[in-house]
Design goal:
Layout: H1 4-16, E1 19-22, E2 36-39, E3 43-52, E4 55-65, E5 73-77, E6 81-90, E7 108-117, E8 120-128, E9 133-141, E10 144-152, H2 154-157, H3 159-169, E11 171-176, E12 185-186, H4 191-200
Antiparallel strand pairs: 1-2, 3-4, 3-6, 5-6, 5-10, 7-8, 8-12, 9-10, 9-11
Length: 205
C-alpha cells in the first residue's frame, strides 16, 4: 500500500497540469503568444482598460492559467474615470491566443449613485450598462486612507475580484443596492491610486 501511493501521485500529478496555455504579464517584452505554461484546468486572457472621460489612459493585456470564478466581465465607474475588467476562459491547449476585445460603453441603466468631484462627494452619477451597484472604496496608501464613490457591476463587489483587491492592495470596498445608497459626504480623492490598484491585481495563478 505504501508503494501504491507514490506511484499514483507520480502518474496523476502530470495529468493534472497537462493543459498548455499562453502566458504573458503586463510590461513583459515580446508578444503574448511566445511563452507557454502548464495549467491545471483553464487558460485565460484578460484585458483591463481605464478611461478618463472618453480618453483611454490604460490598456493592459495578460494571459495565463485561469481561475474558474474569475472568468467575468465587470466595470467600476467613478464619473471622470471608468475601468473595465474582462477575463475570458477556455479549456483546450493554447486556446487563449486571441486578446480580449474592447467592450463597448454601456448606456445609462436608470441607476444613480453618489460620486466625487474634488473632495466633494455630493454629486450624482448615472450608472452605465451592467453597473447595478453603488460603491464606496477606501485605499490605504502609506497609512493615509483615500476614498472614492461611484457605480460598479455586481461581479466586482463579490467573489475573487473583491477578495483579490482587498488582500493584495489593501482596498476596502462597500457595495450596496438602491439609488444613492452610497452616502454623500466630503472626502479625499485619488482616482489614479485605485485604478493602479485594480490593474496590479492578478486573477490568474
Amino acid at each position: 500500500m505504501h508503494l501504491i501511493v507514490p506511484i499514483l501521485v507520480s502518474v496523476l500529478l502530470p495529468k493534472a497540469y497537462s493543459l498548455k496555455c499562453f502566458e504573458c504579464t503586463p510590461g513583459e517584452p515580446g508578444a503574448c503568444t511566445t511563452k507557454q505554461t502548464d495549467c491545471p484546468a483553464q487558460c485565460g486572457s484578460s484585458r483591463i482598460i481605464s478611461y478618463t472621460g472618453d480618453t483611454k489612459v490604460v490598456d493592459i493585456n495578460a494571459k495565463s492559467c485561469a481561475v474558474s470564478a474569475g472568468c467575468l466581465s465587470t466595470s467600476v465607474n467613478f464619473g471622470i474615470s471608468r475601468t473595465t475588467i474582462a477575463i475570458e476562459c477556455c479549456n483546450t491547449n493554447l486556446c487563449n491566443a486571441q486578446s480580449v476585445p474592447e467592450s463597448t460603453k454601456g448606456l445609462p441603466n436608470g441607476k444613480t449613485c453618489f460620486t466625487c468631484i474634488g473632495t466633494d462627494c455630493r454629486s450624482t452619477l448615472s450608472c452605465l450598462g451592467d453597473e447595478d451597484r453603488c460603491i464606496s472604496t477606501t485605499v490605504n496608501i502609506g497609512g493615509e486612507k483615500i476614498s472614492m464613490k461611484g457605480c460598479a457591476s455586481k461581479s466586482i463587489c463579490i467573489g475573487d475580484v473583491s477578495q483579490a483587491l482587498g488582500s493584495t492592495m489593501g482596498v476596502e470596498m462597500k457595495c450596496c443596492e438602491g439609488n444613492l445608497c452610497n452616502n454623500a459626504q466630503s472626502i479625499g480623492l485619488s482616482l489614479l491610486i485605485l485604478v493602479t490598484s485594480m490593474v496590479s491585481v492578478t486573477l490568474f495563478y
